[in-house]
Design a protein that fits this description.
Rossmann fold; hydrolase activity; single chain; AB_hydrolase_fold; 6 helices; alpha/beta; about 210 residues
Length: about 210
């Protein structure tokens, strides 16, 4: 089911993958360079509904409008705030999630919106090659139970670069920022996606 939502940043879109007997909603948005067709988002949408978690894939207004470049962070936050009533309106706890830029939005707005938890896929800890430009404060300030899923070779921040903090971290070995793994790696793409899907499923179950 596809739902369009009017926000102060423009028209957003939610693609629902509903659980038959949902106990949680996982709302996840895309990054600045892609949409909800990202491999990790597809894997979660295909797995979690069978485990009692409805998945809402959220497209930010700039993406719905066909623009190529994401707007400023505050505009992304505005779009996310605008879709939240439709997400929370299911009457279930909502995990606020996203990949890359979407993960930053989820962290920045979690407490304000009353999110039950945050799922940060490929959190962009810093721009590639610029570790001094850390965004760790956003992650550490999420204020709710948080799971980071990070590729082992993510140029925006490898797992070992993350500071200690009140969050859990699952590493996808050899994965890049989009969780693609090299052909020479000892695990394939399906195995990498299974690590993500199984890890998020187990973590969501722990949020009871």
């Amino acid at each position: 089911m596809i739902e369009t939502i009017e926000t102060d940043a423009g028209t957003a879109r939610i693609t629902w993958h509903r659980a038959a007997e949902a106990r949680l909603v996982l709302a996840v948005s895309h990054g600045a360079g892609g949409g909800i067709e990202a491999r990790d988002l597809r894997a979660l949408a295909g797995t979690l509904p069978a485990h009692g978690v409805s998945v809402a894939l959220v497209e930010q207004p700039w993406r719905v409008a066909g623009k190529k470049v994401a707007p400023a962070p505050r505009t992304l936050d505005t779009g996310w705030r605008g879709v939240w009533p439709a997400l929370a309106g299911q009457g279930l706890p909502v995990i606020s999630g996203g990949r890359s830029a979407g993960a930053r939005v989820a962290c920045r707005t979690a407490v304000e919106l009353g999110a039950a938890a945050v799922l940060a896929l490929s959190f962009p800890l810093h721009p590639p090659g610029r570790p001094e430009k850390s965004r760790a404060a956003e992650l550490l300030g999420a204020g709710v139970p948080t799971l980071v899923v990070q590729g082992g070779n993510d140029p925006f921040g490898r797992p070992e670069e993350f500071p200690p903090g009140p969050y859990e971290l699952i590493e996808v070995p050899y994965g890049d920022h989009g969780f693609a793994v090299p052909k020479r790696a000892p695990l394939g793409e399906e195995e990498a996606l299974k690590i993500i899907a199984d890890g998020v499923t187990g973590w969501a179950a722990s949020l009871r």
